[in-house]
Amino acid sequence: MDLSNKGKAVAVLNSIETGEQQAISYVNPDKYIQHNLAVGDGLAGFGAVLQALPEGSAKVNVKRAFTDGDYVFTHTDYNFFGPKVGFDVFRFEDGLIVEHWDNLAENTGPNPSNRTQLDGPTEVSDLDKTKENKALVTDFVDTILMKGDFAQLGRFIDDGDADYLQHNTAIADGVTGLGKALDEMAKQGIKMVYTENHIVLGEGNFVLSISEGSLGGEHVSFYDLFRIKNNKIVEHWDTIESIPAKNAWKNNNGKFGF
């Protein structure tokens, strides 16, 4: 049976744990561009990382997978040199993977609302609203996360705690939980700054925003996954990963480059 691009991406991720060889045929060896800065370019770089893993240690459980044109993006529970949560983005050409991005974070315990980094709905719906939902998230990232115009927050999120479910490890549900977290960060002198939104990908009610900025003065990448319902953001998952200094990069492709 011919696999969809989504099925191929999931198979490649699963092969990290299983070692299944068929999956490597879904990657174009002549064009594969790697944006994980800790991994060498091409299939050789990917293979070197797999060989460095302690035997039998890798675990992969893909929780969510979505397709947007030539892109597939996934949300995965990993054991990859330790427990991690990751978003992966794959770009396809002619049915083969030619480019890969990811963003990884340590897998920690439940947040103040007892939600984990990965639990919650997984089913895609509202496919006819994909374009509309992507536009909503693009506006939210620009207005709220980049410009900090919190007076506009009600356009995007309703104000009841049950109206906005939060999976960030340090933040409770609702606008009140978000406000408390931001106030606490301000007290500690920690600034979270979104400087550039690189791409917004979506399928139906799920939209992923990939941005660049800083957290506490450290250069980071923000991957924010939102669930949309009735033209409002109702749920949020994320990973924030530090971007190393360029002299530590294992490839020269950069963290973004969409």
From TrEMBL:
InterPro entries: NTF2-like_dom_sf. This is Uncharacterized protein. It comes from Photobacterium profundum (strain SS9). The lineage of its organism: Bacteria, Pseudomonadati, Pseudomonadota, Gammaproteobacteria, Vibrionales. The gene is SP1862.
